[in-house]
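Translate sequence into structure tokens.
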Amino acid sequence: MPSRQRQRRSTQRATMSDVARLAEVSASTVSLYLRKPDEVSASLGERIQHAIDTLGYVPNLMAGALAAAKTRVIGVVVPSMVNSIFATTVSAMQATLRAQGYQLLLGHSDYSEDEEEALVRTFLSWSPSAMVVTGLKHNRKTRQMLSQSDVPVVEMWELGSNPLDMLVGFSHYDVGKAQARHLMDRGCRRIAFIGARLQVDSRASQRAEGYQTVLADFLAGTQPIIIDVGPKASAEVSSQAFGQLLDEHPDIDGVIFSNDLLALGATFEAQRRGIAIPQDVAVIGFGDMDFSSSSLPRISTVRPPREQIGRAVAEVLLARINGQDAEQARQSDFGFDLVQRESSAVVPEGQTREEHHTSALP
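Result follows.
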């Protein structure tokens, strides 16, 4: 049987009649507005749109003979299509779902809540069998649409309270704490955090919060240093930010980066300035990108469970679609691995930089 949660949510889905009643117009006028908005007066259109927004109404583009149908499509919204982290997760998800006859309808929000809202509205219009979104942070309209939909919903790549339905991921706050403790264990006492999109990337900002917690707990009185390089997470902007950090805080001996590409840019700047990593400054990133294990120095990082998340999302969705009670899988924590490489390895006293590169852990 479908779970009680799914039954409860499906009974709350707003209908066209609900919109018509709230807007005080006929259902045919609402239908005309949805199909040909230019043929409805501006005043009526505003009333209808206000009712749609208030109720979280999503028009069913398969109404009529197919009104009760569900496509064998699953809508997926990720923050970025170019980030290989999310690409790996989506690929694993698709492989599992395709074996059961489902395909993905994929869109990227570019870390914009408004764009995510537009994608969710569009995907729900096509009667998907399920929806997958990234993270727990959504605007009010998106939460309303997903909560009132009659399909299973998975929020992935994050853990936290008040999930919409099912949650598959790991704690980014714990990642930030683990990164800071790792550098402290290697003797670092002036540690900074450099990230991108911290105002809109809630997962990166949670890692920064974890870093701040460790500083407050173990290095009382030390002020956290957090630099946001903005929306362009490139090696070039990271190189500039790292150089500025060294100029303004020459005593910095450890830096946490919100991704490995930013960490790579810092190593380039260090080489230009004759700064030894990790002897002078230890560095750790996030993501375990393909280049991280072959750069010079090789970059210490946190490896997220990219493929495991994708497979798990597919499996819990298939279980729910097939009517199995997935209450026990409401929130799945897959943890993460901290991978130590040369950029944060302990340097034995008296060892040269070249000797250290040769002997450091892979």
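Note: The CA atoms of residues 60 and 67 lie 8 Å apart.
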